[in-house]
Amino acid sequence: MKMHKLWRAVGAMAAGNGRFSRRTLWPRRSALGTCAALAALCAFVAVAAARTPGEKTKAEQAHETAPSWAFVVEPRRPASHGPAKPADNALRHVPGSRAAFTLRQINDGFNPPDWHPGGHPPMPEVVAHGRKPHVMACGYCHLPNGQGRPENASLAGLPAAYIVQQMADFKDRTRKTAKNTGPISAMVTHETLANKQEIRAAARYFSRLKPKPWIRVVETRTVPRTHVAGWMLVPVAGGGSVPIGRRIIETPVNLEQTEMRDDASGFIAYAPVGSIRKGKALATTGGAGTTLPCDSCHGPDLRGSGNVPTIAGRSPSYIVRQLCDFHSGARAGADAQLMQPVAAKLTVDDMVSIAAYLASLHP
Predict the structure, then answer these.
(1) For residue 40, is pLDDT > 70?
(2) What is the domain count for the chain?
(3) What are phi and psi of 241, to 5 degrees?
């Protein structure tokens, strides 16, 4: 950057706008404002000088290397397809429930369907309905029983204090992600508008729920061809099979029930052959310095310890996203600082193996 442009940048920061001149800048601005401007400018220049032309930031590199099968992004509907078909008024049902809902009711983010009300305690208002028009019902994404889906987190059984801290990290933007997705954007844009009382009520509710087996891990060399729908990977009808490569493909056991937000219908996670064995070695021994044994913080059964969350039986897609975010530094809240060195040396292949092993455990 040329000196005259640097001078203009200093002036802009000190003045708060572009209306200044070289002759009048210093008399008009306080020493404090000028020093602050110079400090910010020096930091900017140092960063700019440290980067060679075309060099990418760590955040940019993390965004590019984040695996698309874990950071699922919903494709935009082409304009040529016209408007989406309006929902009909037919009542839908799911096995084991006497309830009935229309598609419009099922897709209502402020009044999600509760197919199995006897399977959980009474929900607080923020979980059942949220607070219109800003805070969506927690139970819409995370489900009334807290089991969640691949695109978000399972909250059942997490320590209440941990949930409260994560909401604080989302709110102050210390918890970010390597590749932004719709569910993360919704958390940051809407759910952080919940007040302290609502957050505490939701945290207490989900912490008291007992997690149940929700994901079945299958090691395989081929998987159904999938596409993105509803922020998840779902099989392509008649699409055949493709090599799994070094991926985890997590998809609904019953797509129709999952689309109706049935919290009794879980998921199947396809993983490369040998992943569970390799993941167990990494998680229990640290892999000769690659990482640290998980039980040192998460407890001997990996079901949490104190305010440290359970990681047994959790969504492998979610686990891979979090390890990527710790690795890149995108997730940098107070508790995350302990995980950043743990994930620093992990490759995506390591993350796949660890996630497969954790998902195979009883929650």
Answers:
(1) no
(2) 3
(3) -120, 155
